[in-house]
């Protein structure tokens, strides 16, 4: 099993939470989850919209159920995510909020961190704050607009105050693909370290395709973060196969390429990140049919380790070989 081969957390994202369905929806896959993984992330259920639906209302019921499910099965949980600009995950009330933004965001971060203190080992504090098209600047979000880049460090400081033992991550995609984006993130890290802002790790989402970014880029990105003494997670891994070619089936050749790709990235992680800095690897879904990539694209894809029946794909064996 994956969790027995790895000496670090091996996780899966599960899409349960308020409005998203409940634990009954994962019963069918429960045996597979317990057998292979020792860590869980809520794919959506701990995002701003779901935990903080109205200005003075926090709704922890569904997230708490997931936390106790994880505990009951000896799995740890990583929190995702305290601050994320994405329109679909932002509470509607926040989009038109007119009050004191710094106080409001601080309260948001601290209410949530305090609630889960001692239950979640780590948090993605800020997600995707660096622009992807202009990767030498912060992303133009509601938060940047209201508070300038300071909202990022303020979130880390607030989270650390509320839960001093939580390991606090900055999480983003494409930092292994774009040199300028990587450099911008590293500059932020160096600045935070100089000023003792409590940032403890970097999450690389690792939504990749078969051939891009290349493995040398991935390794040097992981190494650059490891060299700064931070924790490193691969936080949302999947390997999409179907770009624009609109293949209708997962043929054996593609499945083997995917296996090799999973293996090379997992072993790059082991080669690049010293054991004490391995925050773990999380896969962004369990079965291919559950993948966000499948839901959001007009053509099929098979990005994950298990097929729709829960059978291990070559990709699964690639990860196991890489570990
Ligand atoms: C995605 C979920 O998988 C989808 O179900 C949802 O509709 C949108 O968000 N980067 C992230 C994740 O940090 O939170 C995103 O998850 C995928 C991209």
Automatic annotation (TrEMBL):
It holds the Pfam family Glyco_hydro_10. It catalyses: Endohydrolysis of (1->4)-beta-D-xylosidic linkages in xylans. SMART domains: Glyco_10. It is an enzyme of class 3 (hydrolase). Its EC number is 3.2.1.8. Keywords: Carbohydrate metabolism, Glycosidase, Hydrolase, Polysaccharide degradation, Signal, Xylan degradation. Residues 17-322 form the GH10 domain. PANTHER family: BETA-XYLANASE (PTHR31490:SF88), GLYCOSYL HYDROLASE (PTHR31490). Belongs to the glycosyl hydrolase 10 (cellulase F) family. This is Beta-xylanase.
């Amino acid at each position: 099993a994956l969790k027995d081969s790895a000496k670090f957390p091996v996780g899966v994202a599960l899409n349960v939470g308020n409005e998203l369905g409940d634990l009954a929806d994962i019963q069918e896959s429960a045996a597979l989850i317990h057998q292979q993984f020792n860590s869980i992330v809520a794919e959506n259920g701990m995002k701003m919209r779901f935990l903080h639906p109205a200005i003075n209302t926090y709704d922890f019921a569904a997230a708490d159920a997931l936390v106790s499910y994880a505990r009951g099965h000896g799995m740890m949980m990583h929190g995702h995510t305290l601050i994320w600009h994405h329109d679909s995950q932002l509470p509607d009330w926040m989009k038109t909020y007119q009050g004191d933004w710094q106080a409001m965001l601080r309260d948001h971060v601290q209410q949530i961190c305090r609630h889960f203190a001692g239950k979640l080992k780590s948090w993605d504090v800020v997600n995707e704050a660096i622009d992807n098209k202009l990767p030498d600047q912060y992303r133009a979000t509601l938060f940047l607009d209201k508070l300038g880049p300071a909202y990022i460090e303020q979130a880390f400081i607030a989270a650390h105050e509320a839960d001093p033992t939580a390991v606090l991550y900055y999480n983003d995609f494409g930092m292994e693909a774009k040199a300028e984006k990587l450099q911008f993130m590293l500059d932020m890290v160096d600045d935070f370290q100089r000023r003792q802002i409590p940032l403890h790790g970097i999450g690389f989402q690792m939504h990749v395709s078969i051939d891009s970014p290349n493995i040398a880029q991935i390794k040097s990105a992981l190494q650059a973060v490891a060299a700064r003494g931070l924790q490193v997670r691969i936080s949302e891994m999947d390997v999409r196969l179907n770009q624009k070619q609109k293949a209708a089936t997962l043929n054996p050749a593609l499945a083997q390429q995917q296996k090799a790709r999973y293996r090379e990235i997992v072993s790059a992680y082991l080669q690049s990140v010293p054991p004490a800095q391995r925050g773990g690897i999380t896969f962004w879904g369990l079965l291919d049919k559950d993948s966000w990539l499948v839901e959001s694209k007009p053509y099929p894809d098979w990005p994950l380790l298990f097929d729709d029946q829960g059978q291990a794909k070559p990709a699964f064996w690639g990860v196991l070989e890489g570990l």
